[in-house]
Every structure is written in structure tokens, then in C-alpha cells.
Amino acid sequence: MPVRVNWGTQNEHFLFDLPDPSTPLGTIREIIAAHIDVAPDTFKIVHDGALILDNNAPISHYAIRHDSILQLVTPTGESDEERLKITAIKEQLVAIRVLGNELARFTQRESQSQATYTKQLAYFQESFTQLLLRLDATDLQKNWVHARALRKEGVASAQAFLDRIDAART
Fold this sequence. Notes:
alpha+beta, Ubiquitin-like (UB roll), Methane Monooxygenase Hydroxylase, Chain G, domain 1, five-stranded mixed sheet, 4 helices
């Protein structure tokens, strides 16, 4: 009896013959991906209620047999709330880049008084701190991987500019 693979929201499924038990899970993942026309890394495989993760382990390690049923779990996509958060984070990233360009132009100018220089650095420091705090205050759910990655990028970028400002003061 072949292995049954359930996927999608409409009880879609297909059957395939199981290769040798020493076959790595990654090979099974590629067979499944070719069958449903998606990239192999875009879904997770569940067997007997357990999430199967190690693509290098042989399928015998997971007790996948000829009568097994595999369930595919695919990401559901971004919710409206997540898209709004991503948009807000991207706006902060743009603001960080624009302010970073202004900081670069400012630090390249040679003829400026010490008072002006100190005052402008304080302005940049305050602006980057506000952007950093806005990003930090953005509440994101655990499974919003893209939004979390963008926020992390923004925080790192703002922090790097703050470090440059601190270095310029010394």
C-alpha cells in the first residue's frame, strides 16, 4: 500500500510509493514538492502527530511505512494585521535610511562650529532613539516571521547609527 499525503484545505491528497527505508527525508520532501508544485522548504511534514524536521535522517527513523499518512502544513500567508505591521515597520526603515543619509552628509561637512556640531549630533541621536523605540514598541505575534525579521533589521540599523553618533562625539 502506498503512502498517502494529505495537503491543502480541500482534503486534497495523493499517493506515492515509498522508496527504500534508508532514503533520507529530504528525498521524500523533494518528491512531495514536485507533486504539489511548490519549493521543498515551504511546507512541514507531520507523521503520527509529530513534526518531522531532520531532512538528513532516514525515513525509517520516523517509522514511515507503506501504509503511512503524511500531513503537510503550509504557511497561511500574512494576515491583514500582519501586513499593516509590516507596512509600519517598512516606513520606519525608510525613515532610518533617510536620517542615516542626512547623518552621513552632516558628518562629511568640514566647516561647522563645535556648538552646531554638538547640537546636530544631539538631534540625530534623539531622532534615531525615537525610531528605535517605535520599532521596539511594535507588538508582533510569534509566527510573524517576516515582520519580526524586518523589525530586527530596523533595530540593528538604528542601533548602528546610534553607535556611530557616540563614536563621533569622542
